[in-house]
Amino acid sequence: MAAKAEKSTPATGSPADLKEKKKERILDLSRYMDKLIRVKFTGGREAAGILKGYDPLLNIVLDNTVEYLRDSEDSFKLSEDTRQLGLVVCRGTAVVLICPADGMEAIPNPFIQPE
């Protein structure tokens, strides 16, 4: 008669230990709740607003949202023009970048050689 195979536990510990560990997310947006953030989307659009909610798929809700419009002559540059959008639900599959608005500033390109 063959012996019963015992269930093996992962190398990290017993199943009880795994239940106690909280699943850690790669991107923790909870610290940015009710704070101003800036979001870049696929296609080049950019917006800034107050983070009111999010889910694991990175769908986000922004309030008092402002969209930064692109320059009509060069679509890669942002113009000084903005558009007020108000309350916005952003689909997570379109989000490329999320950053706090107060922690972002333009810097000169360090790779350009002075002539």
From TrEMBL:
Residues 1-20 are annotated as: Disordered. The keyword Nucleus applies. One of its GO terms (cellular component) is U2-type prespliceosome. InterPro entries: Lsm7 (IPR017132), Lsm7/SmG-like (IPR044641), LSM_dom_sf (IPR010920), Sm (IPR047575), Sm_dom_euk/arc (IPR001163). The keyword Nucleus applies. GO terms for molecular function: RNA binding. Its main location: nucleus. Residues 24-104 form the Sm domain. PROSITE patterns: SM. Keywords: Acetylation, mRNA processing, mRNA splicing, Nucleus, Ribonucleoprotein, RNA-binding, Spliceosome. GO terms for biological process: mRNA splicing, via spliceosome; nuclear-transcribed mRNA catabolic process. It holds the Pfam family LSM. It is found in: Nucleus. Transmembrane segments: none annotated. Belongs to the snRNP Sm proteins family. Component of the precatalytic spliceosome (spliceosome B complex). Component of the U4/U6-U5 tri-snRNP complex, a building block of the precatalytic spliceosome (spliceosome B complex). The U4/U6-U5 tri-snRNP complex is composed of the U4, U6 and U5 snRNAs and at least PRPF3, PRPF4, PRPF6, PRPF8, PRPF31, SNRNP200, TXNL4A, SNRNP40, SNRPB, SNRPD1, SNRPD2, SNRPD3, SNRPE, SNRPF, SNRPG, DDX23, CD2BP2, PPIH, SNU13, EFTUD2, SART1 and USP39, plus LSM2, LSM3, LSM4, LSM5, LSM6, LSM7 and LSM8. This is U6 snRNA-associated Sm-like protein LSm7. It comes from Ceriodaphnia reticulata.
